[in-house]
């Protein structure tokens, strides 16, 4: 883990037509202005729609944020420890999609690690989701060796989110997506023809990019797909997107 000082707004992996992979060993961690909070940024573009971000957030014991809202919504997947807010204490495996306007004061007594997608879920009619991937039901995937657990899909919104469980020695050949596809490795090691990606790795495949994924060890991965119609449009957060009114996660350019 590489550590630096406070985050300054910047562009990180903004070209949707580029194939991107980030290993946990190459992730740079930044301290925030809040007590006991650090994050490692996978992608960010501060020049559009007020800074959507995909990142890991590390709460050290006793770490907390002040009360704040989410005008563009957020996704949270708890990876380690217990994440807490006014809705309860959420153990590892908890997946939350908090829609536009959600307000909370998150904290962690013992410390935790979360995968977060911030300001990418605008739209006041978006459904709130709260589930645990370790307790959910599995469905058949595209081959018998892959099981799927659906987390989010809603009419009038283009994103789809699900979890995949790959058995050991599973392999697919020449997969081609029609939309952008993001993958975050939760357990095991996931591979393609360019390398192997352990727990904590994040990948993004552009549309029409062939790849041949596999897993020798077996793995558990988070998957998200969404379309892109313009290479300059970084994220689509909905027509109801509003400017944040307060500093969130210590990375806004203003208060």
UniProtKB/TrEMBL annotation:
Domain of life: Bacteria
Listed transmembrane segments: none
GO molecular function: manganese ion binding
Family annotation (InterPro entries): ChrR-like_cupin_dom, Germin_Mn-BS, RmlC-like_jellyroll, RmlC_Cupin_sf
Domain ChrR-like cupin as annotated: residue spans: 19-120, 132-228
Coiled-coil segments on the chain, per record: none
Protein name: Anti-sigma factor, putative, ChrR family
Taxonomic placement: Bacteria, Bacillati, Cyanobacteriota, Cyanophyceae, Oscillatoriophycideae
């Amino acid at each position: 883990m590489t550590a630096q000082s406070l985050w300054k707004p910047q562009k990180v992996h903004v070209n949707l037509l580029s194939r991107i992979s980030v290993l946990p060993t190459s992730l740079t961690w930044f301290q925030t202005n809040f007590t006991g909070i650090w994050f490692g940024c996978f992608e960010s573009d501060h020049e559009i729609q007020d800074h959507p971000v995909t990142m890991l957030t590390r709460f050290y014991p006793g770490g907390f944020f002040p009360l704040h809202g989410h005008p563009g919504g957020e996704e949270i997947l708890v990876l380690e420890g217990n994440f807490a807010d006014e809705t309860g204490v959420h153990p590892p495996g908890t997946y939350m999609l908090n829609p536009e306007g959600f307000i909370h004061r998150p904290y962690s007594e013992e410390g935790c690690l979360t995968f977060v997608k911030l300001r990418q879920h605008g739209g006041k009619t978006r459904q709130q989701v709260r589930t645990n991937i370790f307790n959910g039901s599995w469905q058949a995937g595209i081959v018998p060796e892959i099981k799927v657990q659906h987390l989010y899909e809603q009419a009038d919104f283009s994103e789809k989110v699900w979890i995949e469980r790959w058995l050991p020695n599973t392999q697919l050949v020449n997969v081609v997506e029609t939309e952008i596809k993001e993958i975050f490795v939760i357990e095991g090691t996931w591979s393609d023809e360019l390398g192997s990606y352990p727990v904590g790795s994040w990948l993004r495949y552009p549309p029409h990019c062939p790849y041949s994924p596999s897993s020798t060890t077996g793995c558990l991965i988070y998957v998200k797909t969404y379309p892109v119609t313009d290479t300059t449009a970084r994220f689509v957060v909905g027509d109801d997107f509003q400017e944040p009114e307060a500093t969130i996660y210590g990375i806004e350019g203003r208060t």
